[in-house]
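Worked example 4.2. Below are the chains of a multi-component assembly; read each line carefully before continuing.
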Amino acid sequence: MPLSSPLETIPIKRTPFQNFWRIFTQNRMGLVGLVALIAIILVAVFASALAPYDPYSSAGINSSDIYQPPSPEHPFGTDDAGKDELSLFVYGARVSLVVGFFASFISLAIGGSIGISAGFFGGRTETVLMRFNDIMLVIPDLALMVVIIALTKPSLWNIILVIGLLGWTFTSRIVRSQTLAVKSKKYVLRARAIGAGNRHIIYNHILPLVLPLLLVNAVLVISAAILNESALSFLGLGDPTLISWGQMLNYAFARGAMSAGAWWALVVPGFGIVWVVLALTLLGQGLEQVFNPRTESHHLVETKREERPVPAVLPGPASSAPQPLLTVTNLSIEYTLSGGSRALAVDHVSFTLQKGEMLGLVGESGCGKTTLMLGLLRLLPAAGKVVSGEVDFDGHDLIALSEEELRDVRWKGIAIIFQGAMNALNPVRTVGDQLVEAIRQHDPGKPTAALEARVSELLDLVGISAERKGDYPHQYSGGMRQRAMIAMALACDPQIVIADEPTTALDVMIQAQILELLSSLREKLGLSIILVTHDLGVVAEMCDSVLVMYGGVMAEYAPVDRVYNAPQHPYTRELLKAFPDLADPGKKLSSIPGYPPRLDDLPAGCRFAPRCSVALERCSRDLPGITDLGEEHIVRCHLVEPQ
Amino acid sequence: MSEPLLEVVSLKKSFSAEKPSLFFGGRERLVRAIDGIDFTLERGEVLALVGESGCGKSTLALTLMGLEKPTAGSIRFDGQEVTQLKPAALKDYRRHIQMVFQDPYEALNPTQSIEEIVAEPLLVHGLARNKHERRMLVLRALEDSGLKPAEIYLDRYPHQLSGGQRQRVVIAGALVLEPRLLLADEPVSMLDVSIRAEIINLLAELRQSRQISVVFITHDLGTVGYFADRIAVMYLGRIVEIGSTQEVLTGAQHPYTRALLSVIPVPNPRLRRQRIVLQGETPNPIDIPSGCRFHPRCPVAVEACRVTDPPFIEVTPRHRAACLLAKVK
Amino acid sequence: MKRTRFFLKKLAWALFTIAFVVILNFFLFRVLPGDPARQGIRDPRMTKQSIEAVRQRFGLDKPVINCFSSLNPLKTGNCFINPFETQFFIYAANLFQGDFGISFHYNRPVVDILMTRLWNTVLLIGAGQILAIILGVSVGVVAAWKARTSLDYGALSLSLLAWSLPTFWLGMIFLFWGSNNGFPIGGKATPGMSSAPLSEQIVDILQHMVLPTLTYTIIFMGEYMLIMRSSLLDVLSEDFILTAKAKGLNTFQILKDHALKNAMLPLVTVIALNLGFTMAGAIQIETVFSWPGLGQAIYEGVVRRDFPILQGAFLMIAISVIVANLLAELGYSMLDPRVQSD
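Applying the procedure described above to all three chains together yields the following structure tokens:
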């Protein structure tokens, strides 16, 4: 089966700039800002062509022209000296923009240099520069500018220089933290490892990564410079020989525009300033979307699901055989991707969980195992939706329950330990506090003494000294945080605990401790556990049954013995061959060519077919159905289907 | 037999624990990241360096690369002492020893094309006479890393490649200078299981075809079983056991090695082993325990272990363990 | 113990910064051509006695500072003079005793004039900031919660607009509209109100405060809303929020007990960083509305070339900002337990 090269599916050469433009143009705000900015720049450049009169000359003006409202001869009215506001406006644009851009150029150059030097060289250099930066940050900018210009001459270049020399303080902070972030990246280490010098590294690695943020910051700096110039001019410190919008407002204010009712003298120049600054702000928002994209969805949304009538309590068991604690039937979860298309991240998955059973959910990245677990408790993000299936727990279909009813089941019936406990605990609340919260949520009346006792008991259960309940998560080590998460999961005596990759990023010995803990808790408390992992060794040692997932689809589901000793699905077989076995150290590891499918690029037919060495023709056309091989062994593969 | 490619003797590296402040002087507290390491590496040999976090393996890698200056001890590469090299000679040394990193997503500059990334070492060392020659060398390195046809990768960017492909680019970038030694720091731990073997097999093949020696740093003993010639186990800045793969995996003498081996999960449900799960965590390298540094967590420690820092005991001529209870064969 | 060390370090740094500003202030007013001391002497309003007093007070016949007899850095002087006999020391000593000089225009000690001004500014900024924070945070929270709905886009647009307005211009627009609609045209109180009963005085002051405070609030509300929104969105996509949801908490509980405290942290930082900008706003608003605060004092100092007032007001503004910054940093450290343990 020829392996499709991933690169051939991306025909266009996507340089970083093309990437940038593509994302930037998706954001309307940014585009609007850019267009508006270009418009006003053009106005300033072509001022002499656009202005009907020359605002610097008083030719042809007499006293009756003062403060005339807008009219055909003067579309924007006239000012206190009888000059045409429109002409003043377009010429004023020049000064305001020139000051803004030149001054910010100075600020950006200074801020960029200081930031990069401080971040890159570190040590004393950094300390001195940043302390100086802190001082300059604290000193109020406008006040200092006012003082300096008042004591010197209010000329154009003076103003540009003063605004420029004082406007770099935010820039340097941002540049420094970005430099530090880049410096810690491995590709900088690699550059050093190949013998590159400082200059090479700064030029080739630091600058390209700092420039985008500098660009975003530049927008802010230019806005600030323009606002500062107008404020200074308004206060009477502008260059008296030049027209700027701020200067126009100064005259309007000082020369009685308000008492004369000449609102146009106020609105017109102000409108200019707002136009430019708003354009820059919108442009900045657009740029931020590209360089610092923020997810605009969050966890507080209710998981979407297909509407369905709430069933009455499910019919009781037909036989007297022990009923499973949890029965998942044909669960399918759909994701809406950024382009708008939809894909099934979980496709008709079914499994059961008996009391006291440990089920291993195995798969590689993108197989949908985490999505499946989140879906059980309807904790999916906004892009996810449960489109079909049932989750029968304790006599209710969890998918059909209302959100309020489901909240009662969460944690009390089924608890979940998330991947990477580092961030799963709130950093600004103590660990004990968060444990108490879990208990109180499902047992509101519990008296404080009993709460404290229970917290100590839980911590003790997982091997953490009870004295540490007043500590914050960052004061715990990685292994301890994971134990704290386990303690919290047990707080309400759940029947099922889902552990999603509980030992990723932990050392081997800590992993062993955690797994041993889970095992003993299972025995002691009669817990049922679903262990989500990519580690086949862990599953073999701890689990009773295994569900192997690939590309959102159930590949194989069987008791652990059968999966390891008689695997039927080609993926399971290959995966076992690729997994190292310490008991057989000479075993040569094989790999599966290609890579796991991405959600936006799912193959038609069997998801594993492109990488399967024994695939038939129909495998790439039809998704295989579910074959029950007996002895609780389920496989989804065309090769095992009865003819 | 010719002398070893790499010879490390009593290597030590300490860091001070306090940051420099503007006004007050900080108290000196030492983090003894590496506290006396000895080993040798032959040409074309693969040595697996195994240890958990805090054992000093990353610091060791950086020191071997010359990116950190050792506090004491010596490193001899191809007979030449490299710890005190002047910048020009150090740069030259860097041609012979290259690193492969753990995180394929962070090891490549997202603003550089694949060609630029792989060509960078050539530019730094001024090795190609013109752009065309550079390109030829880049193509060859890409092909040797299994990226075929190499041409289509030249003007692609990292974000367009999968994890496995990126790691191959990292390896190509290391190969282009034709090094004698590759330091691979957890090169596969961030890749999917089904792809790991690819990269390991690539390294094995490179070792065969180019006689490159490999120091393979990992926390996962399982992956090196068939690939490594020798295994060295590190704990708190020291090598506590070193020997051939066979000897260490089947006849480990140090209690720490034995514990590690017993807890690494094995994909065989019928094999229920006796697991030695150590309690607590690796101590901070600022506070190294007295005597044998492992004794507080050791399941078989005796009185003498608290006071005596055990020397290496030769179990066999090639297998040594730093434990008072190690048995000589 | 760690906390006191932290506090002391921050306090020491604040004092160092104040010292820097004092030195800067001194040199600004001596170095730049508009040297007030010498200007003062040439000012025709000064009487002979006051000129002599100025000469004495500033020690104009004495060397400026050790090693430099004048301000020309290339012309060195005697380093081994008594440091207490330099102009700089005299200046610093005066400052320390609360002597900021005598205003040219009012002919009264600067510090007397500015102290009342200080409280007026605090009143105005205080009211404006508090309202801005309350409104900005509330709108920001709602916008983040209802992200990507039309409510969010509306709030976002208005906030971006508010942020883009020049402070003084918004003030002028309000003043213009207000003066035609019954609002007072400036100042803090109607003349002659000082003899009225206290309650009436307060009402009068409040009436005068409405428009300037409104201006202030609108300008800052925009920024706070944007910060709150983005910071809350960041927090709401963190893992611990998912944990809270998995524990069975409802939306309100999650917002109250988990999200808000974390989301407020960047806002506190921004408020602290913004203090200089806050003062810039005060200068502009007070000028437009003739509100008798420190900002207006700066304006007066410029327009009337009353340098003692200008210098004193600048120093006071700078010191207020430094102190406020210190308080904000301490406040932040109490909210975020991770701060002191680094």
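Take a moment to check your reading of the output against the notes. Chain A is about 45% helix and 10% strand. The radius of gyration of chain A is 34 Å.
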